[in-house]
Every structure is written in C-alpha cells, then in structure tokens.
Amino acid sequence: MSQKIPDRKMMYGGGWHSALDGATFGSVNPANAEVVAQVPLGGAADARAAVDAAHAAFPAWSRRTAADRALLMHRVADRLEAKREEIAVTITMEEGKPLAESRNEMRLTIDSLHWYAEEARRAYGSWIPDPVPNRRLLSMRQPVGVCGAIIPWNVPAAMITRKAAPALAVGCTMVLKPAEQTPITALLVAEAFLEADLPAGVFNVVTGDAPAIGQAMLGDERVRKISFTGSTEVGRLLLRGSAEHIKRISLELGGNAPVILFEDSDLDKAIPALCALKFLNAGQACISANRIYVHASIHDAVAERVKAYVAKLRVGDGMKEGITMGPLIEAQAVEKVETLVNEARARGAELLVGGERLTGGTYARGLFYAPTILTGMKPGMRMAGQEIFGPVAPLFKFESEAEAVVAANDVPYGLAAYIFTEDMARAIRVSERLETGMVGVNDVRIGAAEAPFGGVKQSGIGREGGREGMEEYLETKLVAIRVDPGA
Ligand code: ADP
Fold it and tell me: Burial, 104: exposed, middle or buried (Cβ in 10 Å; 0-12, 13-18, 19+)?
C-alpha cells in the first residue's frame, strides 16, 4: 500500500530551508524499496546556519521562566497529538515497524514533552551551609547552551523528544540531525514545534550528510554539548571529536542484552514478554534480547514455546492490517543477520525455525528476514559478542546462577538485561551483579519518560529520561556572596 508523502525542507531559524547547494536525497521504504519523499542533503554550511539560529535564540530562551517554557512545550505536545496518526504512518513507511508499534512510539514522543515541561519547574539549586562567616554559598542551575543531537532511525520520533524535551525545558536550544533513513518523521515532528510558535531557532533540524554535519557540530565552539544515540563506533568518534573543545557529551550506544530465564521462571509470563521484546521492531532495538540464557531444566520447554509464538508472527509491510513484524532497515542489515546465523550454524548451533530471507510475492521488493530461533549456542560464536539487530533468538543453556551471571557480563556492552525468576532474593542479587544500566525483572518494559535510560561500559555515558536526563543539560554555578553582618 503506497501512499504519497510530499517532499520536505529542513527546519532551522523558524523557517523551512533547502540545502544551501540545493542537493536532495530520498528516504526509502524498506518494505517495498519505494522512495517515500525527497529531503535536503545538507552539509557543514547548513549545520552552521542552524547553529547560528540556535545560538541567537539561546539568550532569550534561557532567560524565560521555566513555567513559560513549559507552557510552550505542552503546546508542542498538543500539536504532536494532532499529528499523531500522520507521524505514525510516516514512521512505518520510513522505518518499517508495524503501524501499531509506531503508534506506541508516539505515546512516548508526546509524554516526554509533558513530563519534562513539568520537571523543568523543579530544576532546583540550593543554599549551602557556609563554613565561612559573612558569606553565603548559592548553587544555581543553568542550561548548558546550544546542544547538538544526533539520532538513529529505529525510534525516529520518540528519540527526538527524549533529547529535545529536557534540553529545551531547562533553557537550552538544539540542532538535531535525524538519521538518513528517517528524515521525514523528524521534519514532521519539527513542524509541531513551529506550529506551537516556539521562538525561532530554539529547535532546529538539519538533514543530510552525517559526517559533515557531525564535524560541523563538533568543530563549533558555540555547541556546548552533544547528545548522541547510535552505534558504539560513531559514539567513539564523537567522544574523540568532543575533546577539542571539551564539550559535554552523552552517548546511548549499542547493547547486547542478556535475558536469563531461571529454573523457577513463570513461563506463562516470561515467554510472551521475551518474545515481544525479541521481535519488537524486528529485533532492531538497542535493548532487544541478544543472548537468551535458559536453565537446562526448562530449556526444551522454552524452545518449544518460543517456536509456538514465532509461528503466530505475521511478517510483512507494517502498513498492512494484522502484520506483527516488518522488514529490516537496509540490505546491509539483512546481510549481517544472515552472516551471523550462518556462522552460528556452521559452528554447531541448531536451527529451530527461520534462518532465511523472505523473498518473492509480497516480500519481493522488501528487506525481510524470517523470525529465527537457534539452540545450542556457544560463547565463542559471533552472535554472542555482537549486537544482532535482527529477528533472531539465540538460546544458550546454563546450569547455575553464577555461571549465568558470568556469561551475561562477558561482553564489553552494558545497556539492558532481563531476568525471569519467582525468587525475590535472586532477583535482587542478580540485578546487583549484572553490569548493565538497566535490568528488567519479570518484565521487559523498561522505558518511560520518568525512568533513567542508559548504559555502562561501552554502551554509553549519561542517562536519558527521568531527573537524570535533565541533569545532562544543566550546569551548576556556584555564587559565593559576601553578606556584611549589619548592626
Ligand atoms: P546505525 O548503525 O544504527 O545506523 P549509526 O551510529 O551509524 O547507527 O547512526 C546513528 C546516527 O549517527 C545517524 O543519525 C547517522 O547519520 C549518524 N552518523 C553516522 N556517522 C556519523 C558521523 N561520522 N558523524 C556524525 N554522525 C554520524
């Protein structure tokens, strides 16, 4: 089902702009290879123009009251509410996830704006008890300044407000670069900011050449902070680049989430949760289940039940009614999944279901890979150490709690982990020992506007969401004041 979406310009300084050199590129629907629409292919000069706008807007925006900024942000949320379905459809056309998942994403997109609008009114500083007579110590909170944000394609709308809402709420301004796969979604979200009459330059979106725009942000002293979500590889590059001007930086990078099903798991709850997590967005999420550790005593039962779940999945174009899993984002992604599955099989893993591209018929022009289950997985296999980012559930057997924890921690990443057990002491003990930023216990829904989301080790620096997410955009300033004793 193809639908025509108009070409779009990028948005900065309160208006719509073509690339300064007029270049454009197309965003492509992974379900059918059709071009969704054309957008400007901006570069360094376009990024600088957007930073000019954000820099010019910063003084007035940061001096407004938090309550005033909050009102405007609630208004952006209302505009997004009005565009909810249009944006959800665009997400599905650009990114491929089923429409129901895109609609869910819009909930978080809007909620982040409301929550941070409220929270910014509580960005308190403090009076500090002073050891020196006739002096007072005041710690005040101030916005960092102009922020650069770079986001990936897999959560193309919610990721925008996860970064922009806390930044704008505390008085920062922002230049955001969406992923090249999902620019139209970002430009529709940007339109909501314009319609809400946010002052020109407070929020800006530049589409185009990632390295050129990234370098322009890094090289510009006026950009005081970078917030990035994406691969560890690009995160490392940005961390290095931010050294030149000592920019603040927060990074949400790759994960390699372990899921541990202990022998006392309640499988009626665990299996639907595990499978929902694994096949959400066709496995293309940084918090997706990457390694599934199953206690030997329940292994075969778990494998059978996951297989039964997979049999009910309906793969296809996410715009079609009843589809529960969409395509992968690009050809390279399909190739990577294929390589990982083949390598595991060549080294002894057993294929329970799937293990192939879906081609022909309605799959002919899309990038579909069958939901796949592998058993007999071993630690040395590539899939154990690498993020799959595809619909493959690899099952590893374990015998003891200690063994499972060691295996779970045996990767350089540490974003999310999940455990299933009915033993509360074990749930707490294992949560403490897992080297990750987040742990789901008998639940896989770990995200909320209120919750600090982020990783440890090579999964990132900083948190997004919750109070911690606001801290990322605040500086602390000490003001020491002489107070004469008086009469
Ligand atoms: P993924 O593999 O999920 O696409 P990437 O890290 O490649 O992850 O992309 C995430 C975001 O980073 C995208 O917006 C992409 O355009 C951007 N990006 C990619 N390379 C660079 C770069 N060299 N500098 C700045 N941003 C980049």
Answer: middle
Q: Residue 180 CA: which ligand 1 atom is closest?
A: 16
Burial of 249 (0-12, 13-18, 19+ CB in 10 A): buried
Q: Residues 286, 387, 471, 472: which is the catalytic one?
A: 286
Residue ranges of the domains in the chain? 10-253+460-477, 257-448
Q: Is residue 396 left, alpha or beta, with left meaning phi > 0 and alpha meaning psi from -120 to 50?
A: beta
CATH topology of domain 257-448: Aldehyde Dehydrogenase; Chain A, domain 2 (3.40.309)
Spatial CA neighbour of 43 closest among 222, 245, 225, 214: 214
235 CB near ligand 1 (under 6 Å): no
Closest CA to 47 of 170, 223, 166: 223
Span 247-269, mean pLDDT? Answer: 98
- Closest residue by Cα to atom 15, ligand 1, is 179
- Rounded CA gap, 222 and 107, in Å? 33
- Owner of token pair 């639908």: 3
pLDDT for residue 1:
45
Is 172 labeled as catalytic in the residue annotation? no
Average pLDDT value for residue range 76-89: 98
**Whether residue 487 has pLDDT greater than 90:** no
In what helix (H) or strand (E) does residue 257 lie, and over which residues does it extend?
A: strand 257-261
- Residue 349 confidence (pLDDT) above 60: yes
Q: pTM higher than 0.85 for the full model? A: yes
User: Which residue, by CA, sits nearest to atom 13 of ligand 1?
Assistant: 179
CA of 107 to the centre of ligand 1 (A): 25
Note the pLDDT of residue 3: 60
107-136 pLDDT tens trace = 999 999 999 999 999 999 999 999 999 999
Q: What is the pLDDT of residues 403-462, one digit of tens each?
A: 999 999 999 999 999 999 999 999 999 999 999 999 999 999 999 999 999 999 999 999
Q: Other C-beta atoms within 10 Å of 117: how many?
A: 23
Query: What topology does CATH give the domain 10-253+460-477?
Result: Aldehyde Dehydrogenase; Chain A, domain 1 (3.40.605)
